[in-house]
Every structure is written in structure tokens, then in C-alpha cells.
Amino acid sequence: MEKRIFKDKAYSLLAAMIKAMANPHRLEIVDLLGQGERTVEEIAEEANMSIANTSQHLQVLKQANLVEVRREGNYIHYRLTHEEVSKSWQMLRELGFSQLSEMERLIRDFREKRNSLEALPMDELLTRMRSRNLVVLDVRPAKEFNNGHIRGAINIPLEGLAAKINHLPKNKEYVAYCRGPFCVFADEAVALLTKRGFKAKRLMEGFPDWKMKGLPVETIES
């Protein structure tokens, strides 16, 4: 094979994979699957899409070898083919933060309205976790928490936080986290906590970022 043909083929293969991700809905699906496998129905509900559209996007990702299928009875479960897929999404996201000023403004404006502008980076949280006055609060659904979470975190899914907030001690400082910078669960949790007089911040990143850094994690066996 001539070197020009080799180069063209190599770049074409990579371009096809990148093209499969070059869609906002498919990027959100990759982000969701970074939390663990999901059925088509679960993805559709989370991403606010029809099941038909969700299936089409999943097929594109599957053809690019970015997701794979596991069948269980009448349900089809999708998951990322490799941890590198999640890592590539995180790197793309970080590139957007560094190169797109509009991205930074978008996040700042969103968080200003929810009193969650001051976000804590992972390295600072790791240092401050030694304090007994700090509570790390995972506000993702219980299934995601069980699949993996920051070591020592407690799980109160966002939808149940309002009902349990009166049982939380007010002499603690809370750091809420969820799926990542584009996940708003943590922002909404911080808004609720601060409104009720708690001292709270959100983690700048999410659990997949924490795990990818090799920081302490736990799982709960089903």
C-alpha cells in the first residue's frame, strides 16, 4: 500500500468516528453512558428524545464502534465499548472550555441564576475531604451511585432532597456532585440547600472525571 493511500485511509477512519460523535444528541448519549449502561427507553427519557430518534442515534454510535449492546429479555442495554470513549468525550469537553469563550459564559450565566457559581475543583475537594465538617453529596439516581461514587459520599437523589433536607445537619458544609459540568442536578441541589440556609457548593466536575483521575471511589454490590 502506498503511503498516501495509507494516510488517506487512516484519516478517513478517524474522521468517520469523529463524525459519529459530531451531534449534540449523540454527545449527550455518550455522556450519559459514561455513568453506566442504560436501556434505549432510559436514554430516551433522560435525553428528552423519542425512542425512535434515540435508537437511530445509538445505531450511528454502534456502527462507529463507540457503543455496544447487551440483550436481556425484551430489553436492549447499551454501554460504551471502552473507557477511552468516555475519556475522549471529556477531552473534547475540556477543549471546548479552553477554546470557546461562549461555553464559559454559558455555564457562568446558568450557575449565577442558581447560586452555584462558585464550584469546587476536584483537587481542592480531595484535600478538604479530610475535614469532618464536609459532606460530599451525590445527587445522582441511586443506580448510578451504586455503580460507583466518590469514596465517603452519601447519596440523596435530587428528586428526594427536598423531603430529606430537614434531616441534614446545618453545621456541615456540603459539596454536591453529579454526572459532570453539563449535569444540572448538582446546581439545583446547591440552589435548594443555600435557599434553606445551608452552606453548599457544587463540584466543578462529575463522577466520571473523578474516576478517570484515579481518585478514591466505591461501589455498592447489588
From TrEMBL:
Residues 130-219 form the Rhodanese domain. GO terms for molecular function: DNA binding; DNA-binding transcription factor activity. Pfam families: HTH_20, Rhodanese. InterPro entries: ArsR-like_HTH, HTH_ArsR_DNA-bd_dom, HTH_MetalResp_TranReg, Rhodanese-like_dom, Rhodanese-like_dom_sf, WH-like_DNA-bd_sf, WH_DNA-bd_sf. Coiled coil: none annotated. Keywords: DNA-binding, Transcription, Transcription regulation. Gene3D superfamilies: Rhodanese-like domain (3.40.250.10), Winged helix-like DNA-binding domain superfamily/Winged helix DNA-binding domain (1.10.10.10). SUPFAM superfamilies: Rhodanese/Cell cycle control phosphatase, Winged helix' DNA-binding domain. This is ArsR family transcriptional regulator. It comes from Puia dinghuensis.
